[in-house]
Amino acid sequence: MANFNTHVTVAAAISAPLAASAFVMGFAHMNEAIFYALAGTLGGLLPDIDADESIAIRLVFRLFGALVAGLIIAAWVNQLPHWQVLALAATGYLIVRFPIQWLFEQLTIHRGTLHSLLANVMFAAIAVPIAYHVFDLSAKTAWGIGAFIFLGATIHLILDELYSIELSGMRIKRSFGTALKLTDWGEPLASLVLVLFCAAGYWLSPPPDAWLSVLKLY
Ligand SMILES: [Zn+2]
């Protein structure tokens, strides 16, 4: 399989020019294009968050912990003394980093359901409402971020699959076919949970009308 650096580099190398073209063609402002390039790069490491001890899981849970801490500060900064807000924010961060991350590691197996196209749809379906409700971005930007997350994560799966073909002898390693899949059919319950997350994410998302009207013009 491709390693962390390869995944990040390739995801960035594809997302950044795409985001730049969106800017050049007038689909996105400069700051939106930067968000898209970052979203594509982040997407490129999401499928490996099911690998315990991976750089991907640490990075994603650090970001998630920082997000929770930031939300706690935003919610209470005017209501409580500052030292209490900071203590709460630190507690929130630590809860995400240790008990929640530990639970997540127990519940997932590497290259299981989270390493699939269905999971990629779910990552996007979670990213859109977070971008829209938490970061207060427009519906159009939020959907653009979701699309780039999906793109980056799908590049990851394709890259893992390419790495399982040995070009020299055209031999195929045993891992072939485990990376790029619709879902893990051996884990129907986990797949169902992903479908439910997709539905909940879509339900919490703003309507994608802004993009639909842009696409209709072409
Ligand atoms: Zn992978």
Automatic annotation (TrEMBL):
GO molecular function: hydrolase activity
Keyword Cell membrane: no
Keyword annotations from UniProtKB, A to Z: Hydrolase, Membrane, Transmembrane, Transmembrane helix
Keyword Hydrolase attributed: yes
Transmembrane segments: 7-27, 33-49, 56-77, 83-104, 116-135, 141-164, 185-204
Entry-linked InterPro entries: YdjM-like (IPR007404)
Listed name of the protein: LexA-binding, inner membrane-associated putative hydrolase
Organism: Marinomonas pollencensis
